[in-house]
Write a structure and sequence with these properties.
Elements: E1 2-6, H1 10-19, E2 24-26, H2 29-34, H3 39-50, E3 55-59, H4 65-79, E4 83-88, H5 91-102, E5 107-112, H6 115-123, E6 128-131, H7 133-137, H8 143-156, E7 162-165, H9 171-180, E8 184-187, H10 189-194, H11 199-216
Parallel strand pairs: 1-2, 1-8, 2-3, 3-4, 4-5, 5-6, 6-7, 7-8
Helix pairs in contact: 4-5, 6-8
The chain binds SN-glycerol-3-phosphate.
SN-glycerol-3-phosphate binds near residues 134 and 166.
Length: about 220
């Protein structure tokens, strides 16, 4: 399962890249608006840092297929060919996805709440389909189960589309999807940090250091004993 950062702050992204095995960055209009700068300024800083070959996912805002198509061209022109165009799976969005795929764009179908949206996005040729796990949970439906079932729909229909699960509240949810082998999960920085913020691990490491230092002396390690 690819692990992708769902954020648009270049400093936060740099920090996570330093410590975690991450595979790219997703953004959405809400995340970009939080940065308080021109969206392309922010996105170009991210692209420059992650490099031309890394996955960067950028969402369109237009409500009709023609405008979405024009936005996609501008996004590709400014951010490079390996920029996934995130298109919400509405009626117009599906039309846009079909046209974008015919023209060689990488596409992430987004704002997915139902199996049917995902199935149609797969049929339209989307590379990724992004179910919103936590937002689905908030509708009283099990978002994790839905993401797994969407993965199964793609495999059972021989579609190449991968699940790019989004909207996580905790690291346990991401792990559940890794066990099922879904293609990717995009996770906010605080939830990524939560993947290793385990009190028992911190305690175990502290005890190792304490025992070592009590025998070899304060400040010692395998370099200076
Ligand atoms: O891009 C969609 C995803 O980021 C939504 O996450 O946490 O706003 O539900 P959230």
């Amino acid at each position: 399962m690819k692990l992708i950062i769902d954020d648009a702050n270049p400093d936060t992204i740099k920090g996570l890249y330093e410590y975690f095995p991450v595979d790219g960055v997703t953004t959405n209009p809400t995340i970009l608006a939080k940065e308080g700068k021109n969206p392309y300024e922010v996105l170009m800083a991210i692209r420059e840092f992650i490099g031309p070959d890394a996955e960067l996912h950028v969402q369109v805002v237009g409500k009709n297929a023609d405008l979405i198509y024009e936005e996609a061209h501008m996004i590709r022109k400014r951010l490079g060919n390996n920029t996934f165009i995130k298109v919400p799976v509405t009626r117009e969005g599906l039309k846009a996805i079909k046209v974008l795929k015919k023209n060689g764009f990488p596409v992430t179908a987004t704002a997915i709440y139902t199996h049917m949206q995902a199935f149609l996005a797969g049929k339209a040729g989307a590379d990724y389909a992004a179910p919103y796990v936590n937002r689905i949970n908030n509708l009283g439906v099990d978002g994790i189960r839905e993401a797994k079932e969407i993965h199964d729909i793609f495999r059972n229909n021989n579609m190449a589309t991968e699940v790019l699960a989004a909207s996580f509240k905790n690291s346990q949810q991401a792990l559940e999807l890794a066990k099922h082998g879904v293609g990717a999960a995009t996770i906010s920085p605080d939830v990524i940090e939560g993947l290793v913020a385990i009190d028992a691990v911190t305690h175990a490491v502290d005890v190792f250091i304490r025992d070592f230092e009590s025998f070899c002396g304060k400040g010692t390690n395998m370099l200076n004993v």
